[in-house]
Amino acid sequence: MSDDATAGGPVEARLPAWAADYWANDLVKIGATLAAVYAVYLVIGALLGYDLSGQLNSLRRLTFLIVLYSIAALVVNLHWGYSGLFNIGVVGFMATGVYTTTMLSRPLQGQNPTGTLPGLGLPFPVAVVGGVLAAAAVGYVAALPSLRLRDDYFAIVTLAFAEIIRITVKASELQEFTVFGVTLGTGGGRGIRTYPNPVDEFFAGPGQPVVEAVSALGVDGSLVAGWAFVLVLVVLLAGVYLLITRLAESPFGRVLKAIRDDEQATLGLAKDTASFKIRAFIVGCAVLGLLGIVWQGSQGYVSPSLFIPQLTFFIWIAVIVGGAGSNTGSIVGTILFVGVVYLGPDYLRRLVEEYVSLSGSVPTFPGAVGALAGGDPQGVLLYTLDQTSTLRVVLTGVFLVWLLRTNPDGLFGDRREIASSIDLEDRVERRRARGDADGQEGGGSE
Amino acid sequence: MTASSDVDATDETELDDADADERAADPDATGRPAEPLLEVDSLTKSFGGIDALNGVTFDVTAGMLTGLIGPNGAGKSTTFNVISGVFPPDSGTVRFGGEDVTGLAPNETASRGLVRTFQMAREFRNMTVLENLMVAPKAQVGETAWRSVLPGARGAVSDQEEEVFERAWSMLEFFDIDHLALENAGNLSGGQRKLLELARALMLDPEMLLLDEPFAGVNPSLESKLLERIETLRDRGQTFLLVEHDMDLIMEHCERVIVMHQGRTLVTGTPEEVQSQEEVVEAYLGGNVA
Amino acid sequence: MITYIPAIAQPPHVLSSVVDRVQRRTRLGKHGWAVLGVAFGVVLLLDLVRRLLSGDLTVALLVGYLWNGLTYGLVIGLAGVGLSLTYDLLEFANFAHGDYITVSAFVGWGAAYLIAGFGRFDPGSLFFLGVGGTLYPGDVGVSVTTAPVAILGGLVVAAAAGAVVAVTLDRVVYRSMRGMDAISLLIASIGVAFVLRYLTIYVFTQQAFGLTVSAWTYGVALPGGTVNVSAPTLLLVASSLAAMAGVHLLLTRTKLGKAMRAMAANRSLARVTGIPSERVILATWLIGGALAGLAGFMIALLQGTITYQIGWTLLLLVFAGVIMGGIGSVYGAIVGGVLIGLITRVSLVWIPASFTEAMGFLIMILILLTRPQGLFGGETA
Ligand SMILES: Nc1ncnc2c1ncn2[C@@H]1O[C@H](COP(=O)(O)OP(=O)(O)OP(=O)(O)O)[C@@H](O)[C@H]1O
Ligand SMILES: [Mg+2]
């Protein structure tokens, strides 16, 4: 779909020299990939006859998903790429964050609109902090005993935890309950209304003039709040990126890297490896909690069915595409994943529907097969077009297996990101330069 | 580069002041008769029916270079594993610096100053040689996650990183692997990996080092340089227990020798004493390994 | 020089479980934990007796829980055999195993419908279980007593489908990845799982299909009520026992079975001597897949409905059973599965129904932490 010559090996090797130089910069990598995907989506938008609002909305949705998946991918990279913690219960921690924040922030009994669940009525920022801490705490409980388990057992434990959390929020017993005289609830299987999005509230209130001004330009006014929220998320992503790269490029991250290579040897260097792993795990879980709060929480309503393993699966794909171990790779991988694998099939469907004249509808698979047997391939196509969101997952699975077999390190997996708070390459260079100057007469160490 | 500047470099102990204090309080320094630093008593360990250790007892005096010898499979590496806490013994005790450290986890024994190297080098293969060394120093400020992240606190982290880098660099120069500083450790040759591991252990500035065949695959000239270095460190109060198959090396450099055979300590004594023991000759030449 | 690979350098098995760590600190000892566990069990047992005596719990209710637990557990156990064997032999956790169950259950029930409704309805509608509302269970009227041939036929087809699915995926995906690390294989199996699950949705949508009409049921009168023993549960118990007997004979009487057992007993030796041969791997997938198919067909029979999630929801419980029984042990997988079934059902005495599955997961986590080699396994070999 996109013109990525990237899928299939170290990127540098395939670029001309001048481009490879620029490519060396991480931000350029991310920016160039993003620009390429944007360009493709603008072209598709034009083909679909989108007007300015349509194009802006299409890019907004694209960016929204890229940013959110990137945050998750960075966490998975911190867990797996750096700490060797095979967490496939990502959704569980997101659910913990958003459910806790919701239950903390919903209005108290009596003040809640009829038909909605009451909560603890805490101010929103406090509730957010509560959600983040709850996710971190669940991470602690999940990881503390499991740290010494081998990777596959750890994976099973995290998955079990995610399921336990989903079962818990789904339980009818907790749909609405009263403790210490306070009534609150998870909403059970029916789900629960979350909290108002502060960005939306701003543009509905004091920010109204901006919306009006934009509308006057002929652009859909609702895009203002939408894009503003995306920008807030971009700032959040930048913060998470900074947090995780700083962690990775520090003595802390260096120990994590060492553990990933050889835990026993790291123990032998007087490092309490369990403590390092658990701290890395908790930091990641806290970020996942926050992610759930801004992602699912921002949709106005959550239910247990949002937190199914498919989401975790997608996040993992993004990381594997980019290559576990590289933060830049995780983000580039996410851009490609969202642009190509996640949203691609749907846009492809729209293009087909726009340019291929198809009529009628085939609601069932046997119907489609029956039509095919009767010599009409259109039935299968029609049925398949209806099922793009399902087939997308199938294709993702196939793609994953293919990737593991042909390119298990991902795009950036073989990349060296040296773990130190200072630029070691630079220090070594300077030392060598000095050594050369000093040791004119002495034999070099080469 | 000169030997003296190298020694100075490792002697910088800003990072581990506590360690330096500990060493100052060492019996040797106070002039009292040397007490054993490491006391190993009646260790046993079996692996699914195989008795790898079957009564290992010996002492290592502080400030000495002690050799641990024995034929293949005698249990030398297993003894190291049990002492350092890789696995707990089935019975017996290990005391270090007068404290019972039996069954303590490896990181706990190491942080008490008892550091070991492995017979098969265990470098961090996906990290550069330089990073390998920089992992080791104890209690680095930047190992606290928030200090590495928060703007105000990062200054201290970077400052210490510069120091750690300087130490690591001197170590690399001494071991003659500075040209490999930015190489991935996994790409090193066998001998280079052993060097790296020894250098990494020395970065911890340990009170006592357990070295499991550290010279395997190392070229002879470097070997004698390393021995010289070990002896210098020994003279400064560091203690070494050395597993080595080269008898000449052991006899020449060690002050005391412990002989193991089939999971037991046979004899302990000076090289001369040990050499004259018939049992030892038998253990090596007699009907042991097939 | 003799070079051996120290235990610690072997593929990252449990370096040392938490118990070891706590043991190091507290010297509580392995027996201490066992004593603690047993004490907890005794307390629960005493509470059970108290509830029975005080009338909080009737005998009928308890027996009902036990019967349900047994049938449910047999399904879990059957499904677990394949997972356990391949986990041990190929050294990776096959997360697609649950979806083998799903796919073969759908195929098996499609076959059952075809047999039961042959000539009366459109074969396409029958095989696809009337997806899209073209057919309803009441139309076809399948049940163990009214259409035993269809049920048995479906059972056989489900087993065959499970075997075919397992072998095909091994050929297409896993075979070319032999020797890759366990985690790559595990991730690949997650990919396979999603492919199968969503292909099922592609064909059958997310609809939940009712399958059967009510069958003959025998009410056993007990103090406090009656326990219903239905024909499907009887069939389930009978065919599970038959399948287990079959597997037992296969493992003990045939050359292939002996080779499989030898390999399970001494994997590292087997690897050195060139086994696991592809033949043994093939046989393992065949048997494991067939049993997964049987389990899938029967869990649908037991519940009377089927959805694309039927295998996936079972998977973690199957893992629980396998881990409980010790990875690699056929009998362990069965016993572990039955135990998990019993635990989740009997836990209804104490906890609400919403949490019974969570209970199973919790037990699994506890086992992983305290006895990763399984309840019946010796020291980790
Ligand atoms: N982790 C282990 N699992 C099983 N057996 C082991 C393990 N570690 C050591 N052994 C066995 O214990 C015995 C002692 O081995 P050890 O490695 O301690 O000998 P060694 O004296 O170091 O020999 P070498 O000179 O060859 O290094 C051997 O028989 C060995 O096979
Ligand atoms: Mg040895």
Automatic annotation (TrEMBL), chain A:
Assigned keywords, A-Z: Cell membrane, Membrane, Transmembrane, Transmembrane helix
Chain ranges passing through the membrane: 30-50, 62-80, 86-105, 117-143, 224-244, 278-295, 315-343
Membrane topology according to the record: Multi-pass membrane protein
Spans annotated as Disordered: 427-446
An example Gene Ontology molecular-function term: branched-chain amino acid transmembrane transporter activity
A GO CC term assigned to this protein in UniProt: plasma membrane
Chief localization: membrane
Localization: Cell membrane
Entry annotated with the keyword DNA damage: no
A Pfam family the protein falls into: BPD_transp_2
Matching CDD domains: TM_PBP1_LivM_like
Ranges of biased composition (kind: Basic and acidic residues): 427-437
Protein name: ABC-type branched-chain amino acid transport system, permease II
Automatic annotation (TrEMBL), chain B:
Pfam families with a match to the protein in the record: ABC_tran, BCA_ABC_TP_C
GO process terms (BP): amino acid transport
MF GO annotations: ATP binding; ATP hydrolysis activity
InterPro entries: AAA+_ATPase (IPR003593), ABC_AA/LPS_Transport (IPR051120), ABC_transporter-like_ATP-bd (IPR003439), ABC_transporter-like_CS (IPR017871), BCA_ABC_TP_C (IPR032823), P-loop_NTPase (IPR027417)
PROSITE patterns xref list: ABC_TRANSPORTER_1, ABC_TRANSPORTER_2
Location of the region described as Disordered in the Swiss-Prot/TrEMBL record: 1-36
Protein name, entry field: Probable branched-chain amino acid transport ATP-binding protein LivG
Organism of origin: Candidatus Halobonum tyrrellensis G22
